[in-house]
Here is the input.
Amino acid sequence: MMKPGDLSAIFARKQACFQILETGFGTGAQFFATCAAWQQVAHLAGHSAGHSVPRLHYVAIAPQPVSREALQVALQPALQSAPATRALAEQLLAQWPPCLPGFHSLALAPGLTLTLIIGEIEAVLPHIAGEFDAQFGADFCSIRADGMAPAGSAVLSAHAQKRTDYPEQATVIGAGIAGASVAWALATRGIAVTVLERDVPAAGGSGNPVAVVRAEPGGEHHPITELSAAGVTWLFRWLAQHGQAVAHDVCGAIRLTRDARRHHKLAGHARQCPPDWLRELDQKEATQFAGQTVADAGFLLPVAGWLAPAALVQAFLAHPRITLKAGADVQSLQPDAAGGWHITLGDGSALASRCVVLASAFSGALSPTTLAIDRARGQLSYVPARADRVLHAVICRDGYIAPAVNGWHTIGATIQKDDEDPQPRAADDDENFQRLARLLPGFATDPALLQSGRVSWRAVTQDRLPLVGRLADGLYASLAHGARGMTCAPLCAAWLAALMTGEVLPLPSPWIARLDPLRFHRRP
Here is the structure.
């Protein structure tokens, strides 16, 4: 039986990404042994001109995941080991997810991703979309010398993504949160990315001064609950590693409910979750946590907070393999004779690209198939911070108020479909004032305290899920992220990059259909 250490010779082959499946993670002994072999090859490659080492994507099923405390005890030898092993153990501890069923994608080091899948083996195996080069398990380890799993041994989903050659270059249309995070996800896979932006980065909905990042609790197996939970944990892990220039705070959020029926439903959901993810609070506890009088009992989401959207977009675009072309207004997109796409810009210039991603809010109009996207106007309002009324957490229900950032609380947002008025309106400020009163009664007693905030438009769908996936050969989309752009678009970008490059997907296979940008149309 081949052992992880025997993989060194196979890692030494030049290959874009090496993917391993393990069916019982435990405390990661086999994972650490595999990483040691991979790091050894990477070290040798650093001294060998012209040689490269593949990225490593390690997918591990954890039927009974250990707590972070138990993992820290188990990793003590690794934490006192060689620098590379110690750094890996520290990152694993720092990014260890809450014990929530589902897929958890951990970028532990440049070129190294661990996707931890919490759930029973028989239940999750059919939902893993991808092909593997090696498989480790309690009773088996199968691998071929050429790095491909032998016939009959591969544990694959019926929705398995076939391995494809990595594109050398890609063009992303749009430099908001969707486009910037797609560009970053492709660039980290060694792909040169050109980003075309009509205006400047974060000029649309991504340009709000503050964005709330939180999951939407809704019960087990609820699609929005599942996607937003995965998006929140992915983003906060990314910020911990790369977000030094991004103002943010994991301050927690208190989710209020509209009525007793909804509260009862969420209470049942909270009982199924670990308390470090979701727990019920009475009104007194909610008020103590928030630092201000909260309108009612609610639910605490500890893994939630706020961030500065424009700074996050800039951080994604800062990758050295990304070239930003601002002021590039894409007028048309047509297939070309070479099997790629011909892009015409407003100044009459043109460029060709084998791979294109539509990622600005309303660039779906460039798609060869009409996409089901609605346009919704939203207006924020601001209220000045006061030293005697410090708010420590995000409070939300049908809208939100965030803790003060740069001397102002952000309240929002209104939503009006088919409304093209770009000017702030007093009526919208009144609506936001009523929203504030439903969250924090008495926090602001005079509507005149509110100042009109930013107006922008969201791209939304009828099922409130984004459009992410393949539109045609070489053409992809990451669109219509709606009110959850900051929360979910970065994870969707990682998912799309994996789809485009044939890697194992960081979400279960049903999400291929759920996010399909043509799901509202009949595919041929």
In short: The first helix runs from residue 8 to 11. Confidence is low (pLDDT under 50) at residues 139-162. The longest strand covers residues 374-384.
